[in-house]
Amino acid sequence: MTVFFEQSQIDQWIGEDASYLDLTSHMLGLHKQNTTLRYVVRDPIRVAGTEEVAEIVCSCGGQTQHYTPSGVAAMPGQTILLAQGPAQAVLRAWKVGQNLLEFACGIATLTHQVVQAVQTVDASVAVLTTRKHAPGVRKLALKATLSGGAMPHRLGLGETILIFPQHRALMGGWEEVGRAIARHKYALCEKKIVIEAADLDEAYRAAQAGADVVQFDKVPPETLTQIVPALRKAHPNVTILAAGGIHAGNAASYAATGVNALVTSSLHYAKPADIGVKVSLTEPAESQEPLVASKLEGLE
Amino acid sequence: MTVFFEQSQIDQWIGEDASYLDLTSHMLGLHKQNTTLRYVVRDPIRVAGTEEVAEIVCSCGGQTQHYTPSGVAAMPGQTILLAQGPAQAVLRAWKVGQNLLEFACGIATLTHQVVQAVQTVDASVAVLTTRKHAPGVRKLALKATLSGGAMPHRLGLGETILIFPQHRALMGGWEEVGRAIARHKYALCEKKIVIEAADLDEAYRAAQAGADVVQFDKVPPETLTQIVPALRKAHPNVTILAAGGIHAGNAASYAATGVNALVTSSLHYAKPADIGVKVSLTEPAESQEPLVASKLEGLE
Amino acid sequence: MTVFFEQSQIDQWIGEDASYLDLTSHMLGLHKQNTTLRYVVRDPIRVAGTEEVAEIVCSCGGQTQHYTPSGVAAMPGQTILLAQGPAQAVLRAWKVGQNLLEFACGIATLTHQVVQAVQTVDASVAVLTTRKHAPGVRKLALKATLSGGAMPHRLGLGETILIFPQHRALMGGWEEVGRAIARHKYALCEKKIVIEAADLDEAYRAAQAGADVVQFDKVPPETLTQIVPALRKAHPNVTILAAGGIHAGNAASYAATGVNALVTSSLHYAKPADIGVKVSLTEPAESQEPLVASKLEGLE
Amino acid sequence: MTVFFEQSQIDQWIGEDASYLDLTSHMLGLHKQNTTLRYVVRDPIRVAGTEEVAEIVCSCGGQTQHYTPSGVAAMPGQTILLAQGPAQAVLRAWKVGQNLLEFACGIATLTHQVVQAVQTVDASVAVLTTRKHAPGVRKLALKATLSGGAMPHRLGLGETILIFPQHRALMGGWEEVGRAIARHKYALCEKKIVIEAADLDEAYRAAQAGADVVQFDKVPPETLTQIVPALRKAHPNVTILAAGGIHAGNAASYAATGVNALVTSSLHYAKPADIGVKVSLTEPAESQEPLVASKLEGLE
Amino acid sequence: MTVFFEQSQIDQWIGEDASYLDLTSHMLGLHKQNTTLRYVVRDPIRVAGTEEVAEIVCSCGGQTQHYTPSGVAAMPGQTILLAQGPAQAVLRAWKVGQNLLEFACGIATLTHQVVQAVQTVDASVAVLTTRKHAPGVRKLALKATLSGGAMPHRLGLGETILIFPQHRALMGGWEEVGRAIARHKYALCEKKIVIEAADLDEAYRAAQAGADVVQFDKVPPETLTQIVPALRKAHPNVTILAAGGIHAGNAASYAATGVNALVTSSLHYAKPADIGVKVSLTEPAESQEPLVASKLEGLE
Amino acid sequence: MTVFFEQSQIDQWIGEDASYLDLTSHMLGLHKQNTTLRYVVRDPIRVAGTEEVAEIVCSCGGQTQHYTPSGVAAMPGQTILLAQGPAQAVLRAWKVGQNLLEFACGIATLTHQVVQAVQTVDASVAVLTTRKHAPGVRKLALKATLSGGAMPHRLGLGETILIFPQHRALMGGWEEVGRAIARHKYALCEKKIVIEAADLDEAYRAAQAGADVVQFDKVPPETLTQIVPALRKAHPNVTILAAGGIHAGNAASYAATGVNALVTSSLHYAKPADIGVKVSLTEPAESQEPLVASKLEGLE
Q: Which Gene3D superfamilies match (chains A, B, C, D, E, F) (predicted)?
C-alpha cells in the first residue's frame, strides 16, 4: 500500500457500519452461501482505494479475486474489485467498501482531471493538496490524491514551516518574523521556509524575511500573472505557490500564471464516484471475467 | 453532546494534524503567550460541531470561552467559538477545529435548506440520511444532519431490516423473501421491515411479501406522483419512502409526491462552510464580545 | 462471523490474561513442542463462540483444525474445537478460549432452553434479549443469544424509541409524551415507538399517546393473561411485550399470556457451561477424530 | 481507584450502549433540562463500582454529587450514587452505570457473604478468586471481589508459576516437572511454585517436585479434612489450597478442612444486584439527602 | 505541551505498570491518606517530561502542585515536580513518572551538552536527531531532544526526501536517481532533496543528481574538514550534513568541519537521569517549598 | 512468541515511522519491484526480536523467508532476518525493524554477558530485571532480557508485594508495616513478601516484620559479603536480593556476595546493537543463503 493503514483503521471502518449483527441477512438466513460481490463503475473514473477494500473484504471473512489497482483508469461497466466468500462476510463488506470506493475514486478522478488540466497548460506546475478535509480522512484522502497524480502540500504541523498571517499577528509583524527566521534558520537547514502573502508587497517582505517559498493566498490569476514575474526577478530562487480558492474551474488559469505549484483543498470535497454493487451466488465454476485495467500499470 | 464522541476520537482528530510538534510555532517561539482564537462565519450557516471543537481546544490545553450551540443559525461576521490559552495550545487546535466546523456546518446548512424546502411543500414529509459518506465520519455527519433538522434513516446493519435487490438475488426471488419474512416476522415484532422497490409492481410484491415500509429507489418524482396513490390505496398501512438520487435540487419535487419521507445521501457531501480564523494576543482585560446567537435555543 | 469482532477485541481478550509472558510454560521449557488442545464438553450444550476461539488461537500463533459451529448442539465428551501449534501458542490460548466458551455456551444453552420452552407453549412468541449484562460483553452476549435462538430487543440507545417512566417523569406526564410523539412521529416513520407500562391503564394511555408497541414491566403472568385480551381488543395493531423479571423458571407462563414477545435480561447471567481442556503432544500422524456435530447445520 | 481503568475503557462502556444518539431522548426533546439521577438499592448489598460510575457520568457530561464508596454496605432504599447534569448527559449514563453497578455489586455482595462464612469458620483462611469469568471483565471483577473482601489468586499468566496436569502431560510426567523446577527455581526465588494435585499421592509428588504451594482440585471437603493433616505433617512449609467447584454453598465446609485458602471462580458469576434508577428534574434548591453510608470507611 | 500526547498514551504508560491493583499498597491499607510525592534531582540536569508526568499524576487521581518546565536546568536536591493526592493515586503514579523523567531528562541533559559543545565551536551548526531509537518512544524522545535544544532531522518517511544507498541500489545507480529527481522535482518544490554520500565523489554525484542537501555518512571529521570546502566551492548552495557515528565524544570535532549540521541518533540512547522519589504524608498546612527553577523561562 | 504483542502494537511501531506515505520511495517510483531486505549483524550478538520484525514485515505487505530465532548467538556478517516483497512494503519495514532489532539485540547481548559473568561466579545466582526503562517498552524489553537469559523481577504493581522505604514512611515505621503484614499475610499465601533494606539492621527488621525476601538497595558488594552470612544465619529461609546500581561492571562482584539474585535496571539501557541493512532487487532464482544459526535451538 502506498499509504499505511493500521488493522484497527480497517476494523473501525467495518465496525462503523456493522458493529453488531447484520439483521437483514440474519433474518433472511444468508449465512454461508458462497457469494460473489462486484464493484462496477458507472462513469469513467480514476481508481483509488481498491487495495484498502481488499483488506476490508479479508477482515470480514471473504477473499478478493482481483481488483484494478489505484491510479489506473476504469471505464463504465468495468468491475474494479471482485470478491467472494460466505454471504455474511460479503454482505458485511458491501457498503463499507462501496463508501470507501465512492469517496476515494471521486477524489482521484477529480484530482486527475485537475492535474491533466494544469499539466496541459504547463507541465512544470505541480498540484499540491492541503490539510483541509473532513476530520479523520487524511490518510484515505492522501491515498486518493496520490492516485490522481497530485502530491501533498504538507501532511501535518510537524513537517514544514508555514507562516500564516495569524502567526505574524502573534509575533507583532514582519520584522519579528524575520528576526525569528534569522535566528533559527540554521537549525532548519533541511527545510524550506514557506510564508503566506496576500499581495506583491507582502511577498517582497516575506522574501526579505527569509522565505524560501512564498505562498500567495486568494490572489486572482490575472493579478498573479502580473506580480509573479516581478517577484521572480527580485528573488529568482524563491519558489512561488498559489493557494486559496483554487478548484477545477480555475486551475488552468492559475497554471498559466507562472507559479511553481497550486495548493488546493477542493479535491478533498470531490463529488463521490458512482459505483454500483452486484451480488450473486457464486457459480460452481465461475469463469474469470476479463478485466480491462488489470494489465495496466497502476500506482501499486 | 447529542452524539457521544470518545476521548480517543477527539485525540485522533488532533493527532491527525499534530502528531508531533508544531514546527512553525516552535521556530517562532510561540509557546506560552496568551492567545485568543476566533472562528468567524463568512456566510449565513446553520452551526454544527462547536461542542466538539470545544473538546478539541480543551484537549490541546486551551479553554473555550463561549460558542454558538449546534442547531442554531449564524450570520456572516459572527464568532461561533472563541477560545483562549497558551499559543501552542490554541495554534494546535486551530486547523483541526476549522476542518471540523467547515465539514459539519456545511452539512448542517445544506440539511437545513433541504428540510426547509421539503417542509414548505409538505410538513409531514421527513428528511432521512443514509449510511453513505466518507469512511469514518458517520458520527460527525450524524451530529451535523441532526443539527440541520434531519433524522437518520439507519445507522448500521444491526438496526433495521432493509431488503435490497441484492438480497433478493441471493434468496432466489420474491417468494423466498416472503417466506423468510413470514417465518421470522414474529421475532422482529418491534421492527418495521423495509423493502426496496424499483417500480409499482415491485412495490406491490414487497407489500405482499410483508414489507411495513416500501422504499422506492431512483424513481423520478413525476412517476412517484402517479404510483404512490395506487400503493396507498392497495396497502394503506405501508409507509412509503423515496430514495436514490435525491438532493437539494429535487427534494421539493419529491416532497410533493405523497411519500412519507425522503432518504438521501447527498447531504453528507455538502460543500464545506467557509469559516475564517482570527488569532490574536489576548488583551489583558478583553471585553466579552456580544454574540448574536447565544441567546437562541440550540440543539444542545 | 454473525457478529463482527475487531482484531483489537480478540487481542484484548488474549492480553487480559497473557499481557506479558507465560511464566509457567517458560520455566518448564514449553516453547515449540507441537501441541494439541481440545475443548471437551461435559454437559449437553448449545455451542457458541467457537468461531471467536478459532481467531484467538490464530492470533496466539496456533491453528484450529476443526470446530463445532455456533448454534449447534454438542454432547458430553464431544470435542467442540481442536487446535494445534507450538506449546507456547496453544497454552496461551487455553484459558482465554475456555473462558469465552464457558461464558458463551452457557448463555446459548440457557437461551435455547428458554426459547424451546416458550415455543412449545406458543410458536409465535419471540424471546428478545435486553441491554442488561456485564459491562463490555454486549457483542459476545449477542453472539451467544443468537446462537441459542433469541433475537435482540435493542442493541443501543440509537436504535429504537423506548419510552420509560423515567422519561415520562422528565416530560411531565402522559400528555406531554403524547404531544412529543405526535409532533415527531412522521420523522420516525421507519421505527416503531415502544412505551413501557406498569398496568392496563398505563397501556391504554401508552397506546393513546401513539405507541406501536406496549411493553409491560413486571406484570405477573396471571395478570397479563387478563389484561392482554382487553388491550388487543382496544388496540388491535399494538404489539405487546412482557418484560421485567422473566427467566427460565417463568418464561413458559409468560408465553401463555398472549403477548407477542418476552423481553429478558436473565439469559446474560446464565451459569457458565462446563468445558474441559485436554492438552497433549501432537501425535506425528494424528488421526482426525470424528466429530458428531460437524455435519450439522450451524448458525455459521 | 483501587483498580486503574483507562479513559478508553470508560468510553468503551458508554459507546457500547450509546455509540450514536439517544433516539428516544432526542425525539422527546430531552436535551439540556437539569436532571437528577439516583441509583437506589433494593436489597442489602456490598457496594462496588461507584467510583467507575462517577467517571462514566463525568465522561457523559454530568456530575456526581456524592456516592457510597466501594467496599461499604448499603441498605434497601439507599441512594448509592446521585448525579446531576443536562438530561442528555444523565440519560446516556443511566443504563451504562446501572449495568456496571448491578454486575459489580452483585459480585461484591456474594464475595462478602462467602468471605464472612469462611472467616466465621476459620479467620486464617483466605478467599482467592481465579482468572475464570466472562471475557473482558477481569479488571471490573477484580474491583468487585476486592470490594467484597477477597484477594486475587492470580491475575495473569505472567504472575505466578502454576503447574496444571496439562503441563505435566506435555512434560512427560512428575519427574520431568521436578527436574525443570530444580533447574530453574533459583531464578524464580521471589516466587512460590504452585502445583495442582488431584489427591494426596499427587500432593506428595508435587511437594517432592518442589512445590511451595499445593492446590487440590475438585477434592471434596470431607476428603480434604483427612488428607490435609497428612500433607502438613510430611511437608510443614507447604501452603495448601482448595480449588474446583467451591461456591457459596460449600465454602464454609472447605474452610474447615485446614487448608490455607479457597480458590474460587464462582464469585465472578454472581447474580447481579438489583439497583433501581430514579430520574427527575433537578429541584432549584435541591436539598442534599442524608446518606447512611457516606460516613463509613470504604475501600476507597 | 510542545508535543501532543493522546490520553490513551498517558493511560498506556500507567497501565503498563499498574494494569491491575497495587498489591503492596492494598495490603498495607494505603488508600486515601493524603500523600505528597516529590521527584528530586541527584545530578545537574536539563529537565524534560514534567508536563507529561503532571498528566500522569492527574490521570491517576492526584494533583501536581508545581513543576519545573521542560527545557530548564535543575540542580541536585531540587524538586522538579511535587504532586499530592490520595496514597493510591500518588503511589500508582510514582514509578511511571520516575521512569519517564529518568528517560526524558537523561536525553535532554545529554542533548544540551552536545548542543553546547557544538555551538561553542560554531554557533551556526545545528544538532539534528534521527528516527533511530527504541520502538514506540519517538514522541517522548522528540520532547526530550527539543528540551535539550536540538531539532529533529526528520520524524517519518512522509516528511522529507532522503535517498540512501539502498534506494540507489534498487534504482540501478546514480543516473537513474538523477532522472527520477529531474522528473519529479517540480512536484516537491516545497521540499529539499537530501542524498546520502560516503565520500566526496559521491557528494559530487549527489549534487549533480539534484540534491539540495548532501548528508555524509560515517565520514571521519578529519576527512570532512578536507572535503567540505571542495564541495562548497563546487556547489555553494548545497547544505552539508554529517551523520553516522556522531556522539558526545566527537560532536565538537564534527562541528569544526564546516558542515551545516550534525545528524545523530546517539542522544536517544542517553544514560537515564538519576531522579529520586520522596513520599510522605501531606502536612496539614504544608508550606510551599521555594523552587529554584520556577522563575526561569522554560520551553513551555 | 514468548511475549504476546497485539496487532495494534505492531501497527503502532510501523505507524510511528510511516504514518503517511514513504515520500522518497514514492518519488523514486519504488512501488512493486520485488525487493530483498537483509538485516546483517556487525558485532557478535545475542539475537532478540526477530519474531516481532517478521510480524512487522508481514503487516507492511512483505514476507520473511527465514530468521535467526531470539535467544541464539549471531556472528558478524550473519543475516539474522531475510524478507522479500514489493519495494514499498520492504522499504516501509526497513527502519522500523532495524530500530527494533538494535534495541532488543542490544539488551539481549548485554543481558547474556551479565548472566554469563554472574553464572561463572556462582551458577545459582539469578539475574532479575526491574520495571525501570523508557516508557512504553516493557514488553519488548522483557522479550530481550528473556532472550539474554535473565528473568523479570516483577512486571507490574499487581504481581508481588514489594515494600519500599517510601511505603514505610507512609505507614509510620517498621512496626506498622509488621502489623499490616501479620494481619494480611494469610490472604497472600501464594506470594512472597519482599522488603527493601538499606543495611543489616533494616534487614533484620524486615525479616522480623515478615519478609520472605530481603532486597538490599545500594549496598556495596564488599559490605554485602559481610552481612549476607549474618542474615542467613539469623533467618535461614529468607531469600536475599541485591539491587541498586548493579551493572555489567560490578555484577560479578555482586554475584560473589552470597545473595540469591541480582536485581538490575541497567540492562534496559544497553547500547543498541549495530545492525546493517542490505536492500537489493530480488534475483529471479535467488539461492537461499546458508544460515549459521538457523540450526541452533533458539528461545522460540
A: Aldolase class I, Quinolinate phosphoribosyl transferase, N-terminal domain
